[in-house]
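Table 4 source record.
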Amino acid sequence: MTYDEFCDKYRRVKNMYDTHACFDGCLFETYGIEIEHVKEVHKKHPNLVWTVIEGDDGELYLATGYHWVNRFGFFITEKPWSEDEINTEILID
């Protein structure tokens, strides 16, 4: 799946705390009120959270769920990922 296909399929939620957030206003940061919001969503609806991860090659990837290591930020989506999509990684090109 491409990043554009991901955006079309899962429909990212806009960051209501930062109207100038990266990725068309949809990236949630890893600190402050934004991470607290991500944690709350994850607690109630874990399948709506995706982590943007920086890989060893410097590329950015999307991974299902909430991850701590190498995290760059988070997306919250309107549509949940399914259990058969767990461990999915999508290159953000």
